[in-house]
């Protein structure tokens, strides 16, 4: 079943067009990523899905509901962790979870949530005394406290150290395993590649591509290279005549084979048939950073902000912030 459907979303702030034309669908149970340069319209898109912005045109469906018209129902089914939401310093972890839980018809058992998120020992700790990683985990717990079927996570691991980021990724996979569909906005290509089933690349308020991480990488760069040395001489035609091979070069005894498709297995098969052994074999791997550059013309902005401030929108705070 389709969890989210965005069709031709268009949103402007005054005369400035933030989202020109964005369409995508997210299936239930997916972790769906949104990546793109600063100012591309990612946050405006997810805030529109959450009912915090009113689109100028286009349509949005959240589990078959309209975020503006069916606001109360959508709020019950959609958990939101957005960028730069404030949270009172003195509130304790358990108090925050109980308070937020009280806003929903079917709140999750917050004790189970603190356990899922590794915060059991911090349940009586005040917000101001939590580390960046613990604040982030609390903000995820708060986004999940209403037992949502869909969760929006915006800049999930910005400001976290590498270990805390990896811990958060495992946690998100555990949350998905409980059946929650996740829409993830991220600046980190490693995060998107590791977590997302599919990704939309948004650039200049439009969708540049939607695909699996592997699909985006392959589409952005169908050409691959294999490098190796050979212990015995080999007639170059053994490789140049392979259908996947575009070019073969030998530089200082090192073979460099450029090609498409299943290049590595084609080359390995040909070498095995010729009974020569490749040494020091390397495959030049493209990754999502390369795909990002190919689709947007810019390098990904992955600089983390020093102080994570994320906390989810409370239902009160999430009154529509329309301009
Ligand atoms: N409330 C607002 N009023 C006016 N312009 C806005 C407002 N919010 C965002 N914008 C502008 O709309 C465009 C899209 O912003 P948005 O925050 O959706 O992009 P983004 O892709 O999430 O960017 P980032 O990665 O930097 O968070 C930007 O040019 C931004 O400056």
TrEMBL record:
SUPFAM superfamilies: P-loop containing nucleoside triphosphate hydrolases (SSF52540). It comes from the Bacteria. Transmembrane segments: none annotated. It is a peripheral membrane protein. Residues 4-229 form the ABC transporter domain. It comes from Streptomyces chisholmiae. The keyword Ribosomal protein does not apply. Residues 297-323 are annotated as: Disordered. The keyword Cytoplasm does not apply. GO terms for molecular function: ATP binding. This is ABC transporter ATP-binding protein. It is found in: Cell membrane. Keywords: Antibiotic resistance, ATP-binding, Nucleotide-binding, Transport. Its main location: membrane. Residues 299-315 have a biased composition (Low complexity). Gene3D superfamilies: P-loop containing nucleotide triphosphate hydrolases. InterPro entries: AAA+_ATPase, ABC_transporter-like_ATP-bd, ABC_transporter-like_CS, ABC_transporter_ATP-binding, P-loop_NTPase.
């Amino acid at each position: 079943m389709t969890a989210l459907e965005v069709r031709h979303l268009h949103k402007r702030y005054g005369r400035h067009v933030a989202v020109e034309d964005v369409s995508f669908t997210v299936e239930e149970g997916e972790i769906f990523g949104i990546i793109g340069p600063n100012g591309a319209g990612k946050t405006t898109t997810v805030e529109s899905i959450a009912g915090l912005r009113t689109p100028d045109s286009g349509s949005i469906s959240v589990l078959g509901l309209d975020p503006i018209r069916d606001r109360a129902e959508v709020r019950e089914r959609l958990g939101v962790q957005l960028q730069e939401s404030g949270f009172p310093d003195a509130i304790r972890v358990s108090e925050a979870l109980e308070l937020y839980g009280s806003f929903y018809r079917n709140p999750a058992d917050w004790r189970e949530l603190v356990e899922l998120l590794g915060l059991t020992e911090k349940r009586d700790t005040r917000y101001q005394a939590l580390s960046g990683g613990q604040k982030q985990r609390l903000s995820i717990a708060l986004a999940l406290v209403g037992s949502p079927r869909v969760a929006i996570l915006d800049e999930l691991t910005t400001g976290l150290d590498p270990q805390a980021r990896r811990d958060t990724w495992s946690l998100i996979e555990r949350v998905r395993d409980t059946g929650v569909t996740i829409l993830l906005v991220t600046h980190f290509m490693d995060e998107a590649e590791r977590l997302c089933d599919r990704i939309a690349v948004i650039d200049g308020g439009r969708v540049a591509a939607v695909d699996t991480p592997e699909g985006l990488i392959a589409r952005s760069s169908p050409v691959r290279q294999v490098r190796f040395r050979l212990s015995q001489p080999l007639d170059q035609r053994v490789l140049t005549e392979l259908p996947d091979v575009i070019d073969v070069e030998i530089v200082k005894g090192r073979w460099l084979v450029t090609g498409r498709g299943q290049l590595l297995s084609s080359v390995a098969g040909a070498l095995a048939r010729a009974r020569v052994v490749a040494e020091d074999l390397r495959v030049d791997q493209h990754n999502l950073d390369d795909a990002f550059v190919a689709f947007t013309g810019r390098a990904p902005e992955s600089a983390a902000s020093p102080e994570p401030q994320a906390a989810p929108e409370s239902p009160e705070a999430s009154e529509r912030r329309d301009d």
